[in-house]
Amino acid sequence: MPSGWVGILTCELHFPEAHSLKEKRHHLRSAKAQLQNRVGASVAEVDHHDVWQRARITAACVAREHREVERLLDEAERWLRGQEWDVALAERLVIDPED
Prior knowledge:
- By secondary structure, the protein is an alpha+beta fold.
- The protein has helices spanning 21-39, 66-81, and strands at residues 5-14, 42-47, 54-63, 86-95.
- It has a four-stranded antiparallel β-sheet, covered by helices on one side.
- A hairpin with a 6-residue loop joins strand 2 (42-47) and strand 3 (54-63).
- It is elongated.
- The mean pLDDT is 94.
């Protein structure tokens, strides 16, 4: 029985306009909500918690087919890169259900 594919996208974000943790958190809440709504991803801030202008987030999504999980990761990354913050690094991993 086929399982499903898991896609993981980790991005390093830079918020040049953020002058406080409160401003950074505002951007992060928006990013997390949009990724959840757009691609059904679970999203967490995984590093740089106490730094005003940086964050590392990881988004994970699941799909029945490999090409679908790749599409979801593409859409998530494209959306992140189109926002007012900078994406300094983006890494992705697709987990094969047979491994």
